[in-house]
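Dear Dr. L.,

I hope this message finds you well. Following up on our conversation about the binding site, I have prepared a predicted three-dimensional model of the protein together with zinc ion. For your records, I am including the exact sequence and ligand specification that went into the calculation, followed by the structure tokens. Please feel free to forward this to your student if that is useful.
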Amino acid sequence: MTEPLCKRCGEPAVILSRKEHFCSRCFCKFISSKQRKQMMSDPYFQDIFKVMHQDKVRSAEQADAQNSSSRILAPLSLGSSSTVMLDVLNDTLNEQKSTQRGRTGFYVDVLLCYLESEFQDLKNRVEELSAARYRDNQENIKFHFINLESFFDGQEFEKLIINDDYLCSSKLDSDPYNLKDLLEQCPNRSSREDLLTFIIRRLVKRYAYQHNHKAILWGHSMTKLADETMSLVVKGRGEHINSLFDSSQLDQDYSGKFRHLYPLKDVLLSEVDAYCYSAGLDKHLVNYTAQDTLLLQKRCETKASGKLIKNMTINEMVRKYFDDIEGDYSNVISTVVRTADKLAEPKLIEPNVKCSLCQGNIHTRGSEWLQSITINNGCPPETQEDKQLYEKWYESNLRRERDEYLELMKSVSSQGEDAPLCYGCVVTLGGVKNKCVTWPQSTDRELNQTLEEFVLADEED
Ligand SMILES: [Zn+2]
Ligand SMILES: [Zn+2]
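The resulting structure of the complex is given below.
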């Protein structure tokens, strides 16, 4: 049997992707070119990433000013996609330095959002990564850390609660509140995951707003975008697909200061993972083992995920589905992403009604619709069996929870007012204890409250 050779350079091949054999170097180049194509996909992003020189329209000073004001924000989870995205950004900077006489076109602020208990470990891991790979670009790539807890720091709160008629009320709540309290209130893992996602997204955007970034680069691979899309549909959040993935417009919720970009949207997760092995990034990943499906020589033991389907969140279930089909049916994945790209935003019922929880635009009155298909009137127990079941319930924790909820409802409805909530968030709140969360109000004060951060210091040798 002949050894397969890289089709591009003739070296021995190590990867098989899209029916083509690659050596490590050519494969990394191939993935990198896909990302860079997105980074040059329209004039707005070209202005950010290109190295500007003195020319007919700008003086040397103006060119310098434009280069140094081209700042982008790259959230990093140290999963495979965001880590690969950062690596390609670093390569782009290296290439600019060598071809443009030491000049570069842009600056990257890497942002890590952490839970208090993870901080030390995360910081060590980032120091290792930075020392191993990004030392030459310390001027252009800086690492910042934000505690997820800061989402609640110094905020004005409201209590969001669903009552029997599926109307939502809110009231000011001055109790000190924190992330631990919030997560303890989420027995349902999907709801917990949703709320954490909102928190991270809002912190990242606020950070970009406060530091004048021109774009937020999200690491999502094509596979991740497909499973986000399907999960949003399943969770009743289909109306928000367009606004979440749109990279053609400035984010108007943040004064039009930045755009969002998904530079790895043409790259499958298995390809991102193969890049990790090819580039030696696999040892830097946190809480994630890169798949070796495309490697000719397998690396890791086949991992049985061991998680039962019924314990999975909706996102995990959809991810499993796409993992299973990625090998033979990867065209399904690109079809989902291309379709999501084409979705326009639905008509607004009235302008500028935002969901109090996820900040998405509201297009349907989800609560009214639910109300119209739901019967909330109770009926008394009749048979002996009914009565036994009732007594059992009466003695149980469920009844105590119900009493707590009624108590809460009473206090909120007497002082509260209606709060807009999208359909998806009505469902999310249904998975939270007492169908109630304490949540920061989105106000200018929230937006402008400076986020406290930890910055990884430049290393000196
Ligand atoms: Zn090659
Ligand atoms: Zn919502």
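In brief: The first strand starts at residue 15 and ends at 17.

With kind regards,
A. P.
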